[in-house]
Amino acid sequence: MMLTTTTTDQYPSRAGRSAEFLPRHDPVVYGSADAKTASGLTAPQLEAYERDGFLILPEVFSQAEIDCFLRDATRLLGSEDIKRSGEVITEPGSGDVRSIFRVHAASPLFSRLVRDPRLVNIAGDLLDDEVYIHQSRLNYKPGFRGKEFYWHSDFETWHVEDGMPRMRALSMSITLTANTPDNGPLMLIPGSHKSFAVCTGETPANHFKTSLKKQEYGVPTDETLAELAQRGGIVSAVSQPGSVIVFDCNTMHGSNSNITPSPRSNVFVVYNAMSNRVTEPFCNQAPRPEYICSREKIETIKPEKTDLMGYRALLK
Amino acid sequence: MMLTTTTTDQYPSRAGRSAEFLPRHDPVVYGSADAKTASGLTAPQLEAYERDGFLILPEVFSQAEIDCFLRDATRLLGSEDIKRSGEVITEPGSGDVRSIFRVHAASPLFSRLVRDPRLVNIAGDLLDDEVYIHQSRLNYKPGFRGKEFYWHSDFETWHVEDGMPRMRALSMSITLTANTPDNGPLMLIPGSHKSFAVCTGETPANHFKTSLKKQEYGVPTDETLAELAQRGGIVSAVSQPGSVIVFDCNTMHGSNSNITPSPRSNVFVVYNAMSNRVTEPFCNQAPRPEYICSREKIETIKPEKTDLMGYRALLK
Lengths: 316, 316
Description:
The structure is a homodimer of 316-residue chains. Chain A has 10 helices and 13 strands. By secondary structure, chain A is α+β, with helices and mostly antiparallel strands.
């Protein structure tokens, strides 16, 4: 199936290209700094996000709230309905569910969580636009046999495979368990978001069926990674439950395997600017399914204040 | 091939057994404390080794010495003779050499290194006996695609597959590159050496051909590991080049994968007490080859003082 792209490709990648760095054409923090009041992010935090491409915010949610989220997460991970929906990633051997996509549509609690002002207002302030959920998922990385996830820029995939035009999206990882130095925490390369690392290789048909377990295309070369790490170093997002790791769509990140007994769970939410809705993919492949990339079902996410009692009331 | 074991099995494992902890019948630090003068280990260090099952000793070798070792290591890793010897572990895809066994016999420099008093005297003091090299290897764990190595007690394998009778051996890892929190450093479980974790499963014929790349038998159960980690925690042996990590043969250890650009290299030397020489394996399999387990070629290792100039003179 050949699709013609109608938008100019600002960030060409794959399709036989050589590895190189292209300049970022887009802001990191959108809009004027003095208009950012809703989120409560301080000027130094905004500067750090602009410079590093991420922020690690501790104690955004209380342990009691996290306990609520974990209870709902455990229920969803064990649900046969969810497994049957196919909007999941399962373990090859056991069939155990490791990720649930569109988690914001999978339960009333997680539907409310993505609307929590503590999250939405950060997205609104940084992107200076109304926002919608490009993708969401609940991730469960088990102890003992947690797999590594290789370095990648989410934007590279979202651009090439989903047709996201510009860098005006961000991810939030709400940590449900502790990220220790030993249990394969998220690693980020500060400053890597400032240039676009063109990837070599092609985009196979139905790439998403394998790439979500182990990415082989859309990954940077060794030389690209060595240069980025040389420039910016590597930061492990070591954090307690209830933290939120906010990172720009183009920040290079990955994680090592986890042989420790401590599992890692998080809720992963991608906010995209309404003005940056996806077009046709920038590759000659059919778009990925709706559960991985919102294309038809676009809904503006408005802040909706919720507290512990509110979340408890939403538990099934 | 069926072999009959003639020695009583103090530490039975595998062969259809259930997971359980057996008491350690052997000392950790052998001999009387006041007789330990050769190594220069202090009383608190001896106590820590007895309690935790390991010691991380910084700055044992100078950076100039490590540069010598690295130069010899690089030569050996690229040697066609070494690759042809078959006493290596290679990468499945590329055929690149990842480990060289009997490295103490592979070059004059490494032959001298295992005799360095800074190492041998520690082994002599802790084991209170003359010592020989049970196994040695040069390990190169590349960046980007360094594989994890799952939790195991070396003694469990040396006992079952090599016929090492008692816990009177120790390993030293001489670090040639930095072990950072992010590049898959050696992780150890303090106190795990105090009990013997019986492993389930069998011992397949020629197990060493696969176990040295990825161990599937002789690994503890999830419950065993969870209990050990619960009791003792997990320590990452974060260290600079020139450090020596000394650990008891029964200390549970492993490492996560390494997707960072920083490779990890070390020289790994196992000193065994002369009184603890291997017998027939405690399983119904043929012994592993001589290059993995010294059985015929037993030579007492005597201290031989060497300094930077001495090592430089041994470079090829």
